[in-house]
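INPUT
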Amino acid sequence: MDNAIQTTALSKKYGKKWAIRGVDLEVPRGSIYGFLGPNGAGKTTTIRCLMNFIRPTKGIANVLGVDSQDDAKFIHKRVGYITGEMEYYDNLTAKQYINYMGYLQGHLDKKEVSRLARRLKANLDLKIKTLSRGNKQKVGLISAFQHKPELLVMDEPTSGLDPILQREFVDMVFEHKKAGGTAFISSHFMMEVEQMCDMVGFINKGRIVEVLTLEKLHEKSIHEFDVMFEKPATKEMLTGVKGIKEIKLNDNFMHCHIAGSVDGFLKAIAKQPVKSLRTRELDLEEIFLKMYGKDVPNV
Amino acid sequence: MFRTPALKTLYDKRWVILAWSLGAFIMNLVIVIIFPDFKNPQLVEAFKSLPESLQAFSGSLDIGTISKYLDSQVFFNNGSFIFWILGISIGVNLLSTDEDRGTLETTLATKVSRSRLYTEKFIAMFFIFLVVNIVSTLGIWLALFIIHEPVSAVRIVQATFMLFIFTALLGSFSFGMGAATGKKGLSIGVPSLTLVVMFLLYTFSQSVDWLKNWDKITWNYYYSRGQTIINGIHYVDLIILLVSILLFFILGIIFFNKRDLQK
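OUTPUT
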């Protein structure tokens, strides 16, 4: 399949430390690819290589069929780029900023800008310096989407967005995919990636640890449950339940981690009177630990 | 409103341009307007009796005529010091500050190439220097009109042009250094230190024997020795200054295109 992004042994060294080493990525055209890793794993470094903001020490980053170092202009024209920590021209209004970036991009669709502003409930008449982080992020999203790019490259794009806007963002990415576009989205939230992506690449300490399809990811994903029963909890309650990674019992209380489908677990506990049930998504560091048994080695 | 990095730069710097232009205008107006007080023959003699090194340090103190006064006090002494600061501060601000803030990366995420951004900012910088120089010269004209001192208009234009080129050289140094390294501290420090060393070298080479020919490695020599307001433009000097600007432009763009952006 034709890849929108393909990196081969991509490596970047700062001083004596490798920020990323031997990163091989294949992002098929028309897919939504999640790039998942804890803070400092190498996600931003990889993305900055793709965007030609930094030069790889070794390896190749090919974006939309072009080596990122050979023709960054070709790539940038076709890419919508946003990061969670993007810096804006604070002295401009949101509208001035979006217009300016549109002119630089060589494509400014004012109708699309208005449509996106309405959709994200963004006030474009305010100066950027007066906006909250979330509202600045809306401006960045409008700027990244308005020129209808072939490829979205996004580094933790939802940080600062409230849950309603995060949902809106997910819908926008789906619409982008429906229109034939590709998205490469880095995140350190498993749930965000699960919602959107067809494929997920895990990176830790500068190396790609594993690449999973969404199906495989669901099989491997781990949910934590705290259950309070009416009667004392026993291990036998979960007889035949698949994917139990961890279980702790204390009188009527049960704490357990379930990998993959939680259907069997929920059916099993429902056979007993349940007083309360609490579930939580594991954070990425915990997921890495559970999925790979131990922390991945340093590069 | 603005569709290019050059126009955006000029928009961002509009108040800076206004403040510098007004400041330079008033400075020149005041310096020239007090010239009649310096025409006093006793004062001129007193200045002439000062040691040569001190005269050189303050710009020539042979200021008995308006042309010599302008050359020494406006275009060499005060003028060049003020325009040093203008050159370096604007040169630093246009690229290094953007990079420090992270907005450089934002701009370069569009289809604008590094070369285009660099060149447009460079042009905008030249335009800023040109405006400030022109407005500052209007201060000279107004003062000359008030004190009824005739000076060749062509020579004033020529001297202003040379000062503009000198400012542009300092700006190019600072701008090129910032573009090449991405380090704001270096792009202020290295040009400032270089200029101070050059100024001292140029000044003391006129009175210290063993430094006699060292002034030729300073830009001050090529900027000042022709005394443009008295003799007109010395074209060899102009070319040397222009080549230096071109060199900084080329080195800056080469390194800027090859290096990593700072985060």
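end of record. The mean pLDDT of chain B is 89.
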